[in-house]
Amino acid sequence: AQSVSQHNHHVILSEAASLELGCNYSYGGTVNLFWYVQYPGQHLQLLLKYFSGDPLVKGIKGFEAEFIKSKFSFNLRKPSVQWSDTAEYFCAVNAPSGGSYIPTFGRGTSLIVHP
Amino acid sequence: DAGVIQSPRHEVTEMGQEVTLRCKPISGHDYLFWYRQTMMRGLELLIYFNNNVPIDDSGMPEDRFSAKMPNASFSTLKIQPSEPRDSAVYFCASSLFITGELFFGEGSRLTVL
Predict the structure, then answer these.
(1) Rounded distance, CA B25 to CA A71, Å?
(2) Nearest by CB to B101, which of A49, A90, A107?
(3) CB of A49 within 8 Å of any CB in chain B?
(4) What is the full per-residue pLDDT of chain B (113 aa) written as tens digits?
(5) Quick one: closest CA in A to B94, which residue?
């Protein structure tokens, strides 16, 4: 079964600091990759996605992620965080598993940004 | 456009009671997913449907859990009997394609006392 690992469970930053959240997955073939964000008390919503093409993907609110196939990684970055970025961030992978496609999520990273 | 609609938003019940959670996917989406979110285990896929047919229910924890999708616009997740360890937020999500973006509902927060 495929798995998704997010290395940082809790991250605390000050405003204007740079952010990088790690994500690694286990499937060796073609994958679709996603980052979702869950603001406090809200549902998950898409930040960005990668299907193919340019491995550097730009999403909403200044976020970007880089797909590195050789490292099975899809790390999320933002050059300068804001207080409003405080949220839970989930990496997700969609790949074949046992004859069907299973969208699998990482455990999530809780980001707190201090003003 | 209306997003994925879940009800109830909050449910508090006593151990042993039956719980039914409801979901209306986005119109035209062929795939519907039920996830459970807890602090200990994160987001777990319970089951997903394609065109109202259950495709993979390997994530359903045990026989106390059941899910149905009688038509393209409605799905239920039922727990009977409920137990305190079932306390979690249950999310429904829908998608146009199996490999595409998931659109999540607001979630149903279940507390079993």
Answers:
(1) 36
(2) A49
(3) yes
(4) 689 999 999 999 999 999 999 999 999 999 999 999 998 888 999 999 999 999 989 899 889 999 999 999 999 999 999 999 999 999 999 998 877 889 999 999 999 99
(5) A103
